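step: validate -> pass
step: tokenize input -> pass
step: predict -> running
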Amino acid sequence: MIVWRHTWPVPKGEPQMLLATITVPFFFFLTGWLWRTGKRTIRDETKMRWLTLGRPYVTWLALIFIEFAASTIKGDITRDTIETLIRPLLGGSYAGRPFSTFWFISALFFVAIMMRAVEKLPRPHLVALAVLLAGVGALLGQKLDRIPLSIGLAIPCLAFAVAGYLLRQWAASREHPWRGRRRVRAVFRRVGVAARVA
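step: predict -> pass
step: emit ->
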């Protein structure tokens, strides 16, 4: 769904808004669903996310910024030129094209760190947290959008990650562990057979 949205043109207006409304929460929900609790501390998580998300973010920002700056600076450097050059460095909604998808990487970075901070809370607290964060996102979405590097957007995104995490815990508690593992193995076998046939 997410790849489809970024690959094929979507008519502007309601279809585009509907897809955007579904895909971003879905991705963060999957992030929570696939989340694994562990012994990693918040500091360890920050280091890991810096390696997997932060460094690639900075590297690609720098590479694209070189061409962006070269095409932006034409003649005299005005205040508008400087503002245009600073916006991508602020990230999030400030960045604009060609950096418009970068918001997601920084939001995921902060969601992962916050997820590590809250993962061991009792389930009722996690449910309350998810509802609270979703409410904050609904009420203050445009203000959160103005916080650089998508830090503000990570707040409602964390609500969806927590929801996915909780649903996975609930689903795991409802199914006999051996039966569930057998189903997963059977699905992978079928996919493997289908891939070999194709």
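step: describe -> Residues 91 and 149 are 4 Å apart (CA to CA).
step: cleanup -> pass
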